[in-house]
């Protein structure tokens, strides 16, 4: 009998997995733009393989690949996935794949909800909750170990999601894609945490949209507000693996590099050592990753916390800590790099002399209710596209 | 009956696959340092999965994962892989995995040799060729479609490898890990090409060690020398997917970021469009990648050359060319990025304000025969390690 | 009869001059380290010449070059200037040079005080005010138009200076070298402004230590606090002409580049157009510069505010606004740059591929009273120097 | 009786002065665009003051401020200087100012010629030499110590200038504004040197257009060619004080930052120590600077070569070598920077997170004879200006 999420959090650290949409996009199984997870039905081997990488890297949670797997999203702007594969079919396959790999180790399975086009289109609470309920029904049927409502930009919608989740009787994790500046309606990060906890979430925190260190700034504010309100819940961090010091309120979506030019921002494994340590010291006990987090990033988290967890991940078979494997390298000057000091102090160069350190984000400042955010089942036309490109707006180039 | 390599090259473009050691290291199946491919025996699903990604991305060649799979390498500096899995076992498994995936499409299987510790240790031609012969025997038994001798720093050893390969009767591809400045014994890139062609290679060129654009500079020199010598062979390019404008003669190995801090140097898919076009225009007909090249990079090569090849890769099902999929994105300002002009002009920022554009390479200047390069079956001791770290040498950090 | 400072501020904008110590250091007339102004006695032509450049650039104020011209500073750490030239002699010469040039136009003469080693050494209010009084006596004898107490890191000492200045009956300007985070004793920028105003300063604000834009952030806080306290005073900004986004509380002194490697941070004239506009819009009416500000920076301020002032500076004879003079350039592509749009959008490259965008400041966190800050008349010995260099501390280099 | 140039070069090192047009532009006395030196008549104090700074910094040569002081240039594109001040008047005043300051020390006076609009307009040798002759006549009347023909982009025009100069009987220095790639007609740097020497120049070399280190690369080629041709002449280097690793054949004029955004490229004094040492080691004996070189840069050259010259410059009174003056700084962490090691290893940050390391030069590729380069006495019209701005061309900004 496996221990449940809450018991594990009470006793120590739970390591989450990394991001699926970005990793599978690069592998050819997810389309950037809609970002929907019909791959669970179309390419189950690829999804299973990625779960296995994270399990091996030390993840305690197999999060079913159900990001954006709601009917309204699967049929947005010309996406035909809902019609071809059904929301139910995609969610169901995702749960089975996650369970299969979880059983290969001591993993837990989580079913995940995320924000909906229905809410962004300004529709009602009932309409929005109906979308959530359809997914939760499948999760309950598949006996997932807990639910995770993540990637919400508005705490109002998040609270609606938590309400739906709590009715299942399962533990509920609630994680918003916000930074230290709070949600897109201007509600502070601290107040978001308080509302999530009061709505019944057992674990609250932040995922996606910002790099590990900005995410932890947000969590610091959440923790202070929760303490001030006398609320006892666990904290979760699942940040990007991209450096975003220049992102504004809306996170990496606004950066000119999103989503096809983010490479120079990818965090190293050493960044993740630092992230894991700082998160742990802050009191975060559910520590994972989101977009950009690959297996080696999760492994770095697990290696940093090896002492606290009393074990190394399976994947450390192929990774001696702090670059120890380089002692086996042919070239003597690479062997000379087999030390913690070397890598902890490295400030890696970009090899891109025409690129700058920071970008100026797009900052359209539109949010839930704005007509440009409304769900549409038809594809974007060339005319609509042209109307979006601001005259005089140039790319980040030279 | 599939067309063979040489016929394909005569008729058009052959797209190679990407890099295995770096991709599988991140996934947890290869150890950085020895970089040896015992994963073919230990984790066949992971290797098969990566082959499939490249096939789907448009690769015409499944290169058996036999990099550094020679007995001397598998037992170098404390590596026990040779003893546990045998050189023969690893090579054999590699061929079978590559063949299995090749049969799922129209792929060819290549068996690969690379430079040996035997040569670097200053041993004889006979000793070195014996290492090669052991691998070639397995490739021939497995009926690979052609042989590829790649990642050689010295043309002398390369010629020895070609001699062994030619005895098999199979087409021979010869690819050195050099840049425009030539091999590590000071032989020019042009002269290397001439020697490879005269030794009997059907295809000659460059892989690894430098970014796509520096690699093409090297190929330009090779082409000029081959033309001047009246030699008719095909050209191959399989560069890094890391920007290396600052690398010196020995390539990215010398950069302070090698191998665990290369993230900010990773090429975007748009860099690969440019690479594919420039390679094609130069007359290179075997166009692939090496370390750092993932499926989405190969897909970009295949998409750039879609017209020349008369087809898109299977993986383009999940990737509308030039960011077309972004038309389905929720945020209007991201939809506004759904154009070639946007991405072609983007100069991506690093998000790393404390990092510079370029690094100063280590430049130890030792090469074949130097005692520090000699094969050793025992592990590197702490004393040896300490002796390698130059006093006063600091990392690239601040 | 010239209008006085306060009348001018009530009626419009007053433009200050730029920095003397940095400009004259580069010209060979001031020594970096002590930074004391004995040049007024030694090299009057050089000082006069610099005043003239600022007058011509549009400055309304000739600030007598009396920075750090107090007895305690002139005899600190091996400096012999006090003995050779006397504090009185230096201050007196400074006033006469400023007056001479001011009379060539419509300029006002200001006598300036700055923070003292006496205070930093933890000595008494009486001791500190005695140092100030000696300078003020000379200023009054020389009939300066107003007094300016500037470059104070602690508002406590500033208040003492204001008290001494007010007794003269002259208008008093009070300007601290702090940023948005307040003074070195942890007093907020807003509270500093309030204390300065309450102590009787007619104009309060910020000079030195931070770039124009961070300085304006600090002024925004000062303004808010003054408004909240119902205090009516004018505002002054005299920032650095160096970009300092990475400076912490103690400003550019802490940056590894101070004082001999600041070149890549120097602001362009276009930065100063933006500064002048933003300062004016914020309500700042005394707009000048400090270290790094040269005549062309002041001219840019005057050109940006030409409409508000109803005139261009004399120096615009040699500078058509917004690069208009480039129409006379030989090369056609340089003529093509003769536009505001070109220069307003330029993000100038550094030409330094091994340098980063930002530095990590030294942050010793010592302040008034710390033994390492105490005044000493003897020179720093090699032993003292060695004890200051932290083991393992490396420069910002590679 | 002062020693002449050639004797001084035979016996040791001659230090040149720095740049006048850029320094005086910033001070308000020269207009960028035409860059002509009527300030010698209009603002003699300012010109005299700058000469004095260079003399004090260690310069052995006072180069009369006659850059571009030819009739055709003084009346180009709306410039009225020729009419108001006459070519003769400007050159005459320049000689007298240089002589006056030279007499304050052991300085030599040089009269300078530079390339002409007449040549660029495609006019005849006779026409071009006539322009030169007018200036040389004034120099001879003023008894300058030697002539310097500098800032020539085409060796053909340079040879014509040397011919005119040689007839005066004075020593002739010939310095082209080219880099390692040679002149704008495609003649190699080595061949340019040979032609200059054969035409009778006593000293040949390079000034302006490139940074010190690229300039020295060019001189290395010149030296090799002169040696190969058995020609014995002295070498001169007078580079920019701006980093230009990204400049192409035409130098810094092509960089998007020219001339009003070059600040982040300004060399530090430590760069100049390295420059002086490398120039000396290469055998260059006339070592000075051009645009961007201020007194403190020249002083750094003189300090680096103090041992070779047996003396420090007068200006070192205010500059203890290798930052020794910082021992007198108040802050202990700044005192800790009083060492050669600190400054030699510093890689200064730009404080500009939105700027890149390198720019892409404009590269119009037009040269002598092209209609867009022709001399015109009328001002550039708005229509002409518009026709120059390439559609779609954006500044280097973001």
From TrEMBL, chains A, B, C, D:
Pathway: Amino-acid biosynthesis; L-methionine biosynthesis via de novo pathway; L-methionine from L-homocysteine (BhmT route): step 1/1. This is Betaine--homocysteine S-methyltransferase 1. InterPro entries: BHMT, BHMT-like, HCY_dom, HCY_dom_sf. SUPFAM superfamilies: Homocysteine S-methyltransferase. PROSITE patterns: HCY. Zn(2+) binds at residues 208, 290-291. The gene is BHMT. Residues 2-305 form the Hcy-binding domain. It comes from the Eukaryota. It holds the Pfam family S-methyl_trans. Keywords: Metal-binding, Methyltransferase, Transferase, Zinc. It comes from Portunus trituberculatus. Binds 1 zinc ion per subunit. GO terms for biological process: methionine biosynthetic process; methylation. Residues 365-398 are annotated as: Disordered. One of its GO terms (molecular function) is betaine-homocysteine S-methyltransferase activity. Its cofactor is Zn(2+). PANTHER family: BETAINE--HOMOCYSTEINE S-METHYLTRANSFERASE 1, HCY-BINDING DOMAIN-CONTAINING PROTEIN.
């Amino acid at each position: 009998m496996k221990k449940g999420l809450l018991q594990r959090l009470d006793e120590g650290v739970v390591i989450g997995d990394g991001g699926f949409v970005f990793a599978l996009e690069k592998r050819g199984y997810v389309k950037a733009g809609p970002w929907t997870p019909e791959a669970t039905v179309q390419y189950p081997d690829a999804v299973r393989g990625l779960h296995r990488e994270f399990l091996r890297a030390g993840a305690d949670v197999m999060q079913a690949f159900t990001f954006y797997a709601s009917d309204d999203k699967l049929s947005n702007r010309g996406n035909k996935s809902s019609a071809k594969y059904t929301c139910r079919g995609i969610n169901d396959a995702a749960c089975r794949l996650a369970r299969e790999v979880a059983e290969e180790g001591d993993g837990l399975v989580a079913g995940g909800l995320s924000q909906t086009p229905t809410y962004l289109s300004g529709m009602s609470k009932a309409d929005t909750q109906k979308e959530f309920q359809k997914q939760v029904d499948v999760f309950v049927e598949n006996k997932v170990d807990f639910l995770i409502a993540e990637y919400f930009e508005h705490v109002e919608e998040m609270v609606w999601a938590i309400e739906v989740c709590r009715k299942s009787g399962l533990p509920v994790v609630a994680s918003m894609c916000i930074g230290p500046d709070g949600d897109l309606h201007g509600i502070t990060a601290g107040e978001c945490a308080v509302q999530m906890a009061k709505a019944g979430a057992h674990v609250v925190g932040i995922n996606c949209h910002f790099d590990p260190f900005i995410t932890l700034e947000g969590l610091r504010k959440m923790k202070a507000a929760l303490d001030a309100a006398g609320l006892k819940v666990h904290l979760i961090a699942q940040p990007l693996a991209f450096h975003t010091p220049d992102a504004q309120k809306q996170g990496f979506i606004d950066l000119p590099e999103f989503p096809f030019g983010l490479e120079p921002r990818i965090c190293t494994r050493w960044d993740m050592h630092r992230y894991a340590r700082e998160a742990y010291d802050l009191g975060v006990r559910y520590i994972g990753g989101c977009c950009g987090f690959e297996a080696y990033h999760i492994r770095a988290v697990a290696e940093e916390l090896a002492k606290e967890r009393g074990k190394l991940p399976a994947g450390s078979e192929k990774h001696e800590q702090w670059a120890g494997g380089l002692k086996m390298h042919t070239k003597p000057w690479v062997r000379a790099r087999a030390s913690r000091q070397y890598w902890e102090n490295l400030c890696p160069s970009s090899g891109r002399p025409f690129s700058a350190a920071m970008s100026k984000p797009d900052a359209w400042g539109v949010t839930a209710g704005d007509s440009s955010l409304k769900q549409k089942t038809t594809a974007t036309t060339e005319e609509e596209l042209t109307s979006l490109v601001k005259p005089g707006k140039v790319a980040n180039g030279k």
